[in-house]
Structures are given as C-alpha cells and as structure tokens.
C-alpha cells in the first residue's frame, strides 16, 4: 500500500494489514459507537430505517453494533475493499448473523448495486475523509437512494481536537496520520466540510451535531490505545509513511503524557455527525 495518488482503501490489503484494520475498527467502535448511536437516534435513525445502506462498512463492526441497537433492522453493507469485505462475510457465516447482505461497491466510481435503490437510509461512518472526491460519493447516493431517504454521515475533524494541558504528543500522532492520508488524497479535517458538500451534492441538510468523545468519560488510556493500535497502518517505506522507530517514538510520547498527567488532564476528540435527506 505505497502508491501515491491512490486512495488508501483502493489498495488491496494483505491479511496482516486487514487484521490490524480489524483490531482498530473493532476497538474504535467499542469506544465511540455508544455516544454516536445515541445521536443517530436523536437524528431519527430507528429500526424502521431499513433497509439501511452501511456504506464503507469495512469489516462490518458498525453494522453489527447497529443491529444490537435496532433489532430487526435490515442492512445492506457495502465497501470497496475486498479484503475487509471478505472478513465481514466470514463473520456473517461464522456468527450466523441475519438480516445483513454484503455488496462490493466503490461508490462515486462504479454504478450502485441494485439493492441500493431499495434502501430507506444510509450511514457513512469515517468513510468520506478517505475519498479524493467525496462529493461524487454523495451525488451517487442522492441519485441512487429513493426520495426522502436519510443519509447519516459521521466523520472526524482534527481541527476540533482539544487538550488540557496541551498535548503535543497527540498533535504529532494526528499530524502523522494527516500526512499519510493527504498523500492518498484524503483529509483529516473533513468534518467541517460535510454540510457544504452534502448541500452541493443536492441533499437537504437537516441537522449537524458534534459528538465530543472525551477522555473524561472514555478514559485517557483507551482513547490513546486506539491511536497506538492504528499507528502500524501508516508504517511503510514510502516518502509519506512512518518509519517503525518513529512510530514507536510517537506511541511513547502518548505514554509519557499519560504518566505525567493521569487523571489530571482532558482530551476531547470530537466527530461531526450530519443528517441529510434525499429530495
Ligand atoms: C475507516 S474505515 C470505516 C469502517 C466502518 N464504517 C466503521 O466505522 O467502522 C473506511 C471504510 O470505507 C471504505 N470506503 C472508503 N471510500 C469508499 C467508497 N467510495 N466506496 C465504498 N467504500 C469506501 C473503505 O474501504 C473502508 O473499509
């Protein structure tokens, strides 16, 4: 996965990389989904929202979490990355998960699979920040979902991150991810763009919220653990990738901050959540 100007997830992952993504996305969902799903409910997501298109489902962890909160919700889980989808399909079989269909789709670049036109809602969780042309994905949804369908978009924006006392180590970690992601045409300041791009794509923007994931409620160590788990994903020999030693150094910086401040600090890592509607 070193080719510049290719989107991160357009590259076929080897099994080791897919396994790291599995661990990162699973832990991320455990940490963040309770706060996010509470907001999705406030914004109107319910068990009647199905069939729901979980676009960019990855290994399907978020789909599985939604099924717990909305029993009976039918899900169409789509992704462009075959290695991640394969893992999800294996889990569906192994765990005998019902009501989830998997489809391969590179949204914005390929025509939609036929089941998308039947979906009454869509969720995009941490998907659009990885796309070189996120508006084309939203346009594809506006054109392929039925009228009045809901589109829920959750994404990160590093510009909203707060720390007290100031945490230079966390800033360095986020900068390393930002450099890697930008080389693939993505951005880690995507949250702020969502309402504008959704409107430009022809969707009606109904509401926009901020979900403040805070060390005070989640715990500082779990919050930093997520980023330490993810660091190996940007270790490679490319000019924009991290060297293994540099990754260790960044992880060590987070550990030192925890040792120095323990409970006497506060980190807030917010995400933007938008509800838009197909006209
Ligand atoms: C960071 S993962 C998030 C996975 C999952 N939504 C979650 O929150 O756990 C981003 C996923 O979006 C997928 N993705 C990115 N752009 C996509 C596109 N245009 N069409 C389909 N899948 C896409 C990637 O392949 C990857 O699996």
Comma- or semicolon-separated keywords:
279 residues; alpha/beta; Rossmann fold; 9 helices; 19% strand; globular; binds S-adenosylmethionine
What topology emerges from the helices and strands here?
Elements: H1 15-42, E1 52-55, H2 61-69, E2 75-79, H3 82-94, E3 100-104, E4 121-125, H4 134-144, E5 150-156, E6 162-164, H5 168-183, H6 194-200, E7 204-214, H7 215-218, H8 220-230, H9 244-261, E8 266-277
Parallel strand pairs: 1-2, 1-4, 2-3, 4-5
Antiparallel strand pairs: 5-8, 6-8, 7-8
Helix pairs in contact: 1-2, 1-8, 5-9, 8-9
The structure holds S-adenosylmethionine (SAM).
Task: Characterise the protein shown here.
The chain is an alpha/beta fold and 279 residues long. The protein has one domain (8-277): Rossmann fold. It contains nine helices and eight strands. Strands 1, 2, 3, 4, 5, 6, 7 and 8 form an eight-stranded mixed sheet that branches. Strand 1 (52-55), helix 2 (61-69) and strand 2 (75-79) form a beta-alpha-beta unit. It is globular and about 50 Å long. The chain starts with 14 loop residues before the first helix and ends with a strand. S-adenosylmethionine (SAM) binds next to helix 1 and helix 2.
Structure summary:
The protein is of the alpha/beta class. It has helices at residues 15-42, 61-69, 82-94, 134-144, 168-183, 194-200, 215-218, 220-230, 244-261, and strands at residues 52-55, 75-79, 100-104, 121-125, 150-156, 162-164, 204-214, 266-277. The protein has a single domain, classed as Vaccinia Virus protein VP39 (Rossmann fold).
């Amino acid at each position: 996965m070193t080719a510049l100007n290719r989107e991160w997830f357009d590259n076929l992952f080897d099994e080791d990389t897919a396994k790291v993504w599995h661990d990162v996305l699973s832990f991320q969902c455990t940490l963040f989904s309770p706060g996010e799903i509470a907001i999705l409910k406030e914004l109107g997501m319910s068990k009647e929202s199905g069939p729901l298109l979980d676009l960019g489902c990855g290994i399907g962890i978020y789909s599985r979490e939604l099924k717990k909160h909305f029993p009976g919700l039918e899900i169409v889980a789509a992704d462009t990355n075959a290695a991640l989808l394969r893992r999800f399909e294996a889990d569906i079989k192994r765990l005998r998960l019902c009501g989830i269909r998997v489809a391969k789709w590179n949204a914005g670049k390929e025509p939609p699979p036929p089941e998308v036109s039947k979906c009454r809602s869509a969720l995009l969780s941490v998907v659009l920040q990885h796309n070189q042309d996120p508006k084309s994905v939203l346009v594809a949804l506006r054109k392929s979902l039925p009228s009045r369908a809901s589109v829920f978009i959750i994404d990160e924006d590093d510009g909203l991150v707060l720390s007290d006392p100031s945490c230079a180590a966390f800033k360095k970690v986020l900068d390393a991810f930002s450099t890697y992601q930008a080389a693939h045409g993505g951005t880690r300041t995507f949250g702020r763009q969502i309402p504008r791009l959704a409107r430009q794509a022809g969707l009606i923007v109904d509401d926009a919220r901020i979900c403040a994931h805070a060390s005070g409620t989640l715990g500082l160590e779990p919050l930093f653990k997520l980023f330490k788990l993810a660091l190996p994903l940007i270790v490679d020999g490319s000019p924009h990738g991290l060297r293994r030693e540099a990754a260790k150094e960044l992880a060590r910086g987070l550990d030192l901050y925890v040792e120095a401040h323990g409970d006497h600090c506060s980190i807030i890592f917010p995400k933007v959540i938008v509800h838009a509607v197909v006209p």
